[in-house]
Amino acid sequence: MSTQPQAQHNRRRRYFIDKRIQSRMIGLTVLFTVLFASFAVALVKVNSGGGDNLMIIAITGIALVLTLFIIYYGLRFTHRIVGPIYAFNRHIAQVRDGRYKNDLRLRKDDEFQNLAISFNTMLSRLRERSEQGVELCDQLNAELDKLEGIDAATLSKIKQQIEQFKKQQETLLQS
Question: Model-level pTM?
């Protein structure tokens, strides 16, 4: 399902997609890491009588490296969650505006793949219904042409309404 050009198109452009969510997730993780490191340093001080500076420096260094590691992988992980949410919001806005030609495509490692499949199935059904509406308009126009005994003004009005509906459906299919 994924091709190389599509993968290029879906590459990350920014580190933060939704700063509020991503900052909160990473911040909480860093906070827990700092609390853990502080607890470890306090434990070393208590167990060593408060004087093992080398151990405290080692724990602080490990905590710093761990914090940087968590920030880096936190950003990568949150992209797998926040990126799809961003894509869903964008596609929902398109559907709301009557444009449902393009399927939602997520990156291979993104979360919510099953939801994207369901969303694309919904879009496919909407397209099918619009196509059926266009076909129905053509059939109605053909049947109206066969009718006799209806005055031209009424027939013209009915055909205009059918054509208006048909154009709406075709617009949905093309956008």
Answer: 0.61
